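Ticket 4471: requesting a sanity check on a complex prediction with glycine. Repro inputs:
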Amino acid sequence: MTVPSRHAEPAIVAVSLGDRAYEIVIGRDVLRSLGERIAELRPGARTAIVTDRNVAKYWLEKAEASLAAAGIASSRIIVEEGEISKTYAGLEQVSEALIAAKIERNDLVVALGGGVVGDLAGFAAAILRRGVDFVQVPTSLLALVDSSVGGKTGINSPQGKNLLGAFHQPVLVIADTAVLDTLSPRHFRAGYAEVAKYGVLGDKSFFSWLEKNHGEVFAGGAAREHAIATSCRAKAAIVSRDERETGERALLNLGHTFGHALEAATGFSDRLFHGEGVAIGMVLAAEFSAELGMIADADAARIKRHLAEVGLPTHLQDIAGFAQEGLADADALMALMAQDKKVKRGKLNLILLRGIGQATIVEDVDPASIRAFLQQKLAQ
Ligand code: GLY
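Returned structure tokens:
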């Protein structure tokens, strides 16, 4: 796999979903084309930009300037940064502001932000007047390669993450790689876990390419854009085949059942970012696959080695305050895993590996074997 030399033209990835098909436009400074592209897609539409306080500092004026240059009216709705906005209260704030801004059926909501803003604004758009279209403008690596593509929108319930939501596809994704310049190294690394995930789950040659080129991906430039485009292409292909997660799309949850349990155990706090939970979860999924004889120990070790090399946590013990709050307790982690949405009628389904690049859904995994595996990991 080679990296195309840098060129001014953005990469366009198509998400083929019939009359709900859309494009992901990937490249440096593509935010400048937001207004022009919206004017072409939806002539005469008004827009409301939903963003958070932090993203607004860096990107709101640029987005507004692009809309204004194309003659598009826009209003701004600014929410608090973080999961605190992905709540009933956040949804009420955004929905009422959209109604006050007179956003109607033919208008557009623009989600300018990371995963929280995309999920919240997308869900508000899904229910506003029974459905208004929206545009995703992701501003974190995680959102660029995962949450802004595929139409999963929603908020958290006090009883669990993402328990309320809707499938609502965006009509356009503007993936400007310049937004990554303002991201902290830790946030970038956490997003990188989702990039590596696409290699581990379905593309061994991409994983090998990342092993060789991760330094360039972290440094920026053409390799970074190539990694982002490859990730978006992988996600777009899966979503096109299984939009509603009746089968294959569940593979995208590799590392997420273990990861979500760890996020829940750390109170969805800064102690463990989502992507960090996914990194540890992916290693656990690989090691559990090896334990079941599905992959070689060497393959599990290879995945762990790569994630550790880029500075991601790969052990339960890497989590700050590991010994507290039930983290060091296999039964508590099992209880948290059982709350995950991937549980069907009380049965625990896991995404495991038959090889690097060959993820598979394993249904009804024996809880006793997971508990014994976790106990062994906790004792290391
Ligand atoms: N983040 C997993 C999915 O979109 O299906």
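Notes from triage: Residues 146, 150, 152, 249, 252 surround glycine (CB under 6 Å). Leaving this open until the requester confirms.
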